[in-house]
Amino acid sequence: MGINFYDVDFTYDVKASKTLKNINLKINKENEFITILGHTGSGKSTLVQLMNALNLPNKGVVEVAGIKILPNNKEMLKPVRRHVGLVFQFPEYQLFEETVLKDVMFGPKNFDKNNADVELSAKQALKMVSLDESLYERSPFNLSGGQMRRVAIAGILASNPDILVLDEPTVGLDPKGKTDLMEMLVEIQKETNKSVIIITHDMNVVAKYSKRCIVLDDGKIVYDGGKREMFENSELLKNHNLDLPDISKVANSLKNKGLITFEALPLTKDELFNVITRGDENE
Amino acid sequence: MNNLAFGQYYHTNSVIHRMDPRTKILSSLLFMIGLFIIPKNNFLFMGIFALFMVITILLTKVPLKKFLKSIKFVTYLLLFSFVFQVLFNSEGELLLTINHNLTLVNVGICLVVLICLFLLRKKIPLFFILFLVVLVLGVKFLEYPVYGNVLLNYDIKVYTGGVITGAFVISRVLILIISSAVLTLTTKPTDLNNGLEALLKPFGKKTSILAMMISIALRFIPTLFLETEKILKAQASRGVDFNEGKLKDKIGQIVSLLVPMFIISFKRAADLADAMEARGYVPGEKRTKLVKMNFTLKDVIYLLSIILIITIVIIYRVI
Ligand SMILES: Nc1ncnc2c1ncn2[C@@H]1O[C@H](COP(=O)(O)OP(=O)(O)OP(=O)(O)O)[C@@H](O)[C@H]1O
Ligand SMILES: [Mg+2]
Questions:
Q1: Residue range B193-211, pLDDT digits in tens
Q2: Mutate to test the interface with A, among B1, B223, B238 (most CBs of A within 10 A)
Q3: In this structure, what CATH number is given to the domain that contains residue A20?
Q4: Does residue B4 surpass a pLDDT of 50?
Q5: Alpha-carbon gap, residue A255 to A261, rounded angstroms
Q6: Which residue of A31, A165, A188, A266 is surrounded by the most CB atoms within 10 Å?
Q7: Does residue A154 sit within a domain?
Q8: Do A54 and B230 touch (CB under 8 A)?
Q9: For residue B2, how far is the Cα from the chain centroid?
Q10: Over chain A, what is the mean pLDDT?
Q11: Which domain holds residue A248?
Q12: Residue A40 above 60 pLDDT?
């Protein structure tokens, strides 16, 4: 099941050029950890909004959990949105209730009116994003930016989507907040096997967490595959405004100075560490 | 969402576009006042006004479609006011009498046709014209007592006065809307605002603040639409569907739209105020202008011709 794109075109304004062109994509329901990359305006946010039918395709078919989303199809969208939970970049676009807890309960209440356990699932979701319990009864507007982001994510998690999509979740968070958030997503992914899709500009995040990378340029998918092949393809990186993670840059300059040698480019701290300590043993 | 007729500047660089915004504002204002002092049912003067408007439209070189668009959303209002006049105005001579014999069958047929039309309205090109034709046919059709007992029988009397006044009212509103469309289609919002500010200057210092407020409001309307769309999407992700639900749910859904709207607007306003202050804006102080407005021969001619027409109307009324 999961999400399938078949020859999808999308445009916001019929008179302007297409925002997305001929997208073909297959995303599994389980065990994916995808990062979507591409420079500003390449269509990343537009693409993820097609995944839960906030944007409808102009051509082609998007299939979510077996439900076909066709051009001009306005029915059956709610199950799609329940299946794919999308967290927007700016939490202030969705927070509105008096208390944090009530705001998180809003989603599950909409999706399942007869569910008596909305409060329970809301509390579970808030626990998952490790928000302090003392904040549950506070107004969501008196929180810090990072806390708001957590509440917004909990608001989506509470409706228990099968696939979780986040639009630039780490922007504007402090370094610790960033790591916490990413660790939390990895945790959720491992525990529940849900697929997680993240839009990001941060190559360190990609290097550390991503299993699969999708690169967009000017509305077209130009790369879809593992992160290692992507980072080792310097042509691709240069052509699409991408960059190496910091660790790999360090590794490259060490290599250029003749201090270390490696076959596979180290992407994370641990990999670089391994390369360096192995080098010691060789001497 | 972008079919609101204001802020819809259309660039052609015509004579009218190059005119001083002050001239355009003043002349629109005078023109509108003039429209309302035309003696009732005087089609000669209405014709002169219409002719003047037609010449102006031709001079702007803006496609006619743009003007028709601005009329589009008052068509039903116009139709209603015309029908109203025709039905209830009993001045002049009797023009025709329509004798309606309502039976269950013919009323039913009319209703069904109307409902079908209403449901298909999005799919039919030139819907309004079809609607008019159907309306006329329907009124005629109700004369014949098709099958069954006549439930109600009444006369509609149409007098010449009603038709004439109806036509007069319609043409007045039409010309009014088109003249304001000329102003907004040929003047950039910023120019419009500068012109307004200059015209209001004699009335005191506060007016420049007012003009700034208007220009900010105009500038932020499209932004607010975009923000609304984003909020709608964010809440749709959480299962809000504005097309379904009971009244109680609906209220909750609207609140989920309004609260973020207010929060974001206030935040934007505060940010903008800071940004303006950081760049040295002091309310009411004298500011230099990037573009100087200048009053040229074409402005004089345009303004004088309007004043001439209005003077004639006034003289006619007084005598
Ligand atoms: N609501 C909208 N209406 C019209 N055009 C839009 C809208 N949203 C985005 N666009 C246009 O579509 C294109 C792709 O935008 P999108 O937001 O998907 O980019 P992005 O890859 O997410 O960029 P960023 O990294 O800055 O978030 C841009 O050219 C943008 O101007
Ligand atoms: Mg984006």
A1: 888 888 888 887 777 788 8
A2: B238
A3: 3.40.50.300
A4: no
A5: 6
A6: A165
A7: no
A8: no
A9: 14
A10: 89
A11: 244-283
A12: yes
- In A200-278, the DSSP E strands lie at 212-217, 220-225
In a domain, residue A229? The reply is: yes
**Short-list A41, A43, A63, A44, CA closest to A53:** A63
Q: Is the pLDDT of residue A113 over 70?
A: no
Question: A95 in a domain, yes or no?
Answer: no
In a shared domain, residues A4 and A79 = yes
- The per-residue DSSP string of B145-187 comes to --SS---EEEEEEEEHHHHHHHHHHHHHHHHHHHHHHHHHHHS
pLDDT in tens, A200-227: 999 999 999 999 999 999 999 999 999 9
The CA–CA distances, whole Å, from B17 to B9, B62, B188, B299 equal 10, 10, 9, 11
| Closest listed ligand to the CA of A19 | 1
The pLDDT tens digits for A178-203 are 888 899 899 989 988 999 999 999 99
Going from the Cα of B207 to the center of ligand 2, the distance in angstroms, rounded, reads: 40
- A231 and A261 in a single domain? The answer is no
Q: Is B113 left (phi over 0), alpha (psi -120 to 50) or beta?
A: alpha
Cα of B166 vs centre of ligand 1, distance in Å, is 49
Residue A101 predicted with pLDDT over 50: yes
Of B235, B239, B256, the CB nearest to A159: B239
CA of A127 to the centre of ligand 2 (A): 28
**Which residues touch B200 (CB under 8 Å, ≥6 apart)?**
B207, B208, B210, B211
How far apart are the C-alpha atoms of A37 and A205, rounded to whole Å? 11
CB within 8 Å: B236 and A54: yes
Residue B240 has pLDDT above 70, yes or no: yes
Q: Is A45 in the pocket of ligand 1 (CB under 6 A)?
A: yes
Contact A229, A51 (CB under 8 A): no
Mutate to test the pocket of ligand 1, among A23, A44, A221 (most ligand atoms within 8 A of CB): A44
**Angle value at C-alpha B281, between B278 and B283, nearest 5 degrees:** 140
A205 plus A271 within the same structural domain:
no
- Residue A214 and residue A271 in one domain: no
Is B239 in contact with A77 (Cβ distance < 8 A)?
no
Q: Which of A20-24, A141-145, A165-169 has the lowest mean pLDDT?
A: A141-145
Q: Is A78 on the interface with B (CB under 8 A)?
A: yes
Q: Is A83 in the B-facing interface, judged by CB distances under 8 Å?
A: no
Distances (CA, A) of A37 to A174, A206, A227, B264: 21, 9, 11, 28
- Residue A211 shares a structural domain with residue A226: yes
- State whether A3 and A83 are in the same domain: yes
| pLDDT score, position B3 | 38
What type of residue is B211?
A
The total number of structural domains in chain A stands at: 2
Name residues whose C-beta falls within 8 Å of residue A222's C-beta, 6 or more positions apart in sequence: A215, A216, A236, A239, A240
**Residue A48 falls inside a structural domain:** yes
DSSP string for residues in B12-54:
---HHHHS-HHHHHHHHHHHHHHHHHSPTT-HHHHHHHHHHHH
Q: Are residues A169 and A61 in the same domain?
A: yes
Q: Residue A100 has which token pair?
A: 């944090």
AA identity, residue B255? V
A148 in Cβ contact with A92 (< 8 Å):
yes
End-to-end CA distance of chain A: 52
